[in-house]
């Protein structure tokens, strides 16, 4: 099947041709004709399947006719995070380059003034995170009764971030006669309920079993007996493998992200970090450094786990097994994208055991243990040469300390010794819940897990409780609030 068989306009086919895509992905082939026929749709698809184009492409053709009016956008795409919203906006620019549609990106961490100006001119497409959208709505800056096309993207992520009540409220402000598309990698009961309430006779398209992992990703569990510094020593050995070109390392806590990045840098590795305590410009700048190859390792909290489309990530490491098993699927989905292969390692220490059990239950698959293998990469302590890039970056940094033997735990520096203190101290400082938990799926053990950083942090500043920081530096093109008309 080719894109030309899907009923898209010539302008869109030209824009798709410019990207070099030769044929639609399975979700695009199934979704695009239905969306063009104005049907409601549920897309159960993992990131990396091409799901963004499956709604952006037909939306552009649907919106090509008609005009926008001041403060009354014609369509709305809801995204759980600013990064994802910015990425969808990028897609609109790419595919909409031969159309004259206007777009506004409403995300927190950016001055409201420009967003309001764009809204006043009238926009065809609104791409928003729920917090900022509600804020502008409550200030009377936006009317939603002209939005006849709604996309709820990454619905299960919205659930995790506590956005479902906001989405329900937003749905009630939209016209009853509208087309609604809902995308989610998994369909936990609250999402099913949302779909039943707000979609009408939807076509369901499923391109991978819910919570299944990508077959292009080789997965390993790495048993680690001791505390954090042992995980770090194991991590460095694995990072030293020849084939580790780029890696995202996920940690459950912001403090762990910061500490780990510091530790990696002190060992001469070219690493950066991204987590919810950083403001938006700092997060984007860090992502940019990773995308450009200035650093080849990115240490991340779950704020970066979903949807981010970074090409060619060869490895994902779960420094901690994620508390929520769904997050495992999303974290490792940062590698093995668009047909490429990838490798994911999950470190399992005593604190991670329950989490990995839940992950294996969810994915229905027992992940192979690295220590079970005779030629396990972890044994290969002295690695072959690394990629030129990381070597170059390392050369600029201070000389490496002499390596310790494979099983000889290095004498931990003072900071690491401090980490041997009971975990509770760190948890109490950084991650103790401050407010009631949002709605949760009835997943066993979920309530007992510590609260994650992401939803509260993002929500707070999206709602304007933290100062609006604006951009420190040039705004990337794709973040421009209004395009051409
Ligand atoms: P998504 O699932 O929307 O995050 O897309 C994942 C990646 O697949 C992105 O890098 C897209 O640019 C790429 N992509 C989308 N559609 C196609 C296609 N038809 N052929 C090849 N790559 C695609």
Automatic annotation (TrEMBL):
Protein name per Swiss-Prot or TrEMBL: DEAD/DEAH box helicase
Ranges where the record places region Disordered: 365-485
Domain DEAD-box RNA helicase Q: 1-29
Biased composition (Basic residues): 391-400
Coiled coil: none
Species per Swiss-Prot/TrEMBL record: Sphingomonas corticis
CDD domains listed in its UniProt record: DEADc, SF2_C_DEAD
Chain ranges of the Helicase ATP-binding domain: 32-205
Domain Helicase C-terminal: 234-378
Keyword Plastid: no
GO MF terms held by the record: helicase activity
Short sequence motif Q motif: positions: 1-29
Membership in a protein family: Belongs to the DEAD box helicase family.
Keywords: ATP-binding, Helicase, Hydrolase, Nucleotide-binding
Pfam families, A to Z: DEAD (PF00270), Helicase_C (PF00271)
Signal peptide region: none
Annotated SMART domains: DEXDc, HELICc
Top-level lineage group: Bacteria
Biased segments, Basic and acidic residues type: 377-390, 412-433, 440-466
